[in-house]
Amino acid sequence: MNRSERLKNPRVILAAATGINLVSGILYSWSVISGHLVSVAGWSSSAASMPYTVAILVFAGVSLVAGRLQDALGPRRFVIAGILLTATGLVVSGYSSTPLQMILSYGILVGTGISFGYSCVTPVVMKWWHRDRKGMVTGIVVAGSGLASVYVAPATAALIRSLGLPVTFRVLGLFVLVTGLPMALMIQNPPEGYLPSPPAARAGSPEPPKIEPWNYDWREMLKTPQFRLLWIMFALAASAGLMIIGTISQIAAEQASYSAGFLLVGLLAIFNTAGRILGGALSDRIGRIRSLQLMVLLQGLNMLSFSLYRTAGLMALGTAIAGASYGALLTIFPSITSDYYGMRNFGLNYGVLFTAWGIAGVIGPVIASGARDLTGSFGPAYVVSAVLLGVTLVLTFFLRPVTGRKER
After folding, report:
1. pTM for the complete prediction?
2. Helices marked H in 164-260 — which ranges?
3. Span 164-179, pLDDT tens digits
4. Cα distance between residue 73 and residue 70, in whole Å
């Protein structure tokens, strides 16, 4: 197999896309960086958190633009641009000494670069693989960003201890450039007329006829009641996982007198990654909505029980369930979007839906901090999260496939 044939191999595309998300997970380094800025550089906690907050908001906002551009012009150039922007933002951050400078370099440049990479690789992979494997391969791709926190945080901490923060930023930028750029060059859409191979178990028999959905554009999608339901469900369901991600170390210390919260952060990252892969594979087997109902129910029961987790073992159990359930959402929702609205405009369509994730990133932390400030405990936050998940579960029973169809 020559180089051109290898680059058109779906497995190569899948590996490259997953690797790009793994590299783009450099965003998880901020938890270590912010601690250094507060303890060594003398920044306030709010100032140290602002570049990361801006990066998250930019990530969600730019995903709309990135999705539209890759739909219209192809993904490779924008994945390359994402790698270059991320690397440049990190290097410039190494020369930034004020919160405003860090917001511009890390919040805007790095946030934009990561969004371009993340938003462009998932649609590409889904085009290379058969519809009956769509959930599985989507899970593998998005698992890259979930797994990144396992290596990024400890590596960043070690670099800061040995080299200092400015040099650490430059090293991270060089790492993103050297590892990410070769993989970005592998990203490409399938050739015209490409038909993905069915799973092996079905390869020997003809496929049953299946009417393809309309390829909705974002304006048509917004007019459907299914989109409004999906947006609300995504925002409510993801908020619980994001709440636990942002506060698990503090919860463990206060509720279980467990000081090694960083171990729970690593555990959460591992199960977040596993949930993305297993959730996708499960949705291929039993259906998207049943899988979504199962994950939401599991997370709801976990939230109702979380105040009872007062030992290290129970806290680890709750953390694992929270991570796996949350991770599965990031596979199931893009798969539903492509099922309902087609692949032609998937990049922009999912970018529009992904704004719900940005709202979830506000809902979860606000619930946690509000409950802690008002009552001195996270207990009420668990109850509120369980209620939101209950609302999500009810809404799933009103979700029906989009009925618009056309022949190909």
Report:
1. 0.76
2. 165-184, 218-222, 225-256
3. 999 999 999 999 999 9
4. 5
